Amino acid sequence: MSTTTSAAPAGIRVFNALAGVTTPAIFLQAISAGVFMSFRGGEAGEPWVTTHRIVGYVAILLAVVTAVIAIVALRRSAAGLMGAAIALAVLLVAQVGIGQAIENARGLVAVHVPLAFIVFGLTIWLSVRGAVVRRRLAGAPAA
């Protein structure tokens, strides 16, 4: 059995686990945003703004680690998955940057919210596609 064939399933399992943890972090982002927006800028919403900010940084960390795993372990066996993982990391960095700028430029909400939907969709796609790739690699014949 070649090293590539035996390493790919382990790499995809790690990738899927990380993508699986990233998905609820993104979901928590949506929940915390909805809660703090319901306070309409009052002080009662401030803990939720802080939660939203912290989870944003955690989501970036998870996405970057997921992208690195994809680059290292999946570049030959699942290049599309690798590209999408890199795109997610880049989009999350942009999303957090835009989110930080919203305080001074409220108009950026019109970019931040739709981008959040794209990020959420991409996160779900990565989880589903990762499972498909794992099944494909698990069934691949040894070289």
Short characterization:
The protein is mostly helical.
Give a written overview of the molecule.
This protein is elongated. Helix 1 packs antiparallel against helix 2 (46-74), helix 1 packs antiparallel against helix 4 and helix 3 packs antiparallel against helix 4 (109-138). Helix content is 83%, strand content 0%. It has helices spanning 3-38, 46-74, 79-101, 109-138. The protein has four helices and no strands. It is mainly alpha-helical and 143 residues long.
Question: How are the secondary structure elements laid out?
Answer:
Blueprint: H1 3-38, H2 46-74, H3 79-101, H4 109-138
> Stretches where pLDDT falls below 50 for ≥5 residues?
1-7
Rg on CA atoms, Å: 17 Å
Structural class of the secondary structure composition? mainly alpha
Average pLDDT number: 88
Number of strands: 0
N-C termini distance? 6 Å
Percent strand: under 5%
Percent helix among the residues? over 70%
Oligomer: single chain
Note the overall shape.
elongated
Number of helices: 4
In this structure, how is the largest beta sheet organized? none
Order of SSEs, N→C?
Answer: HHHH
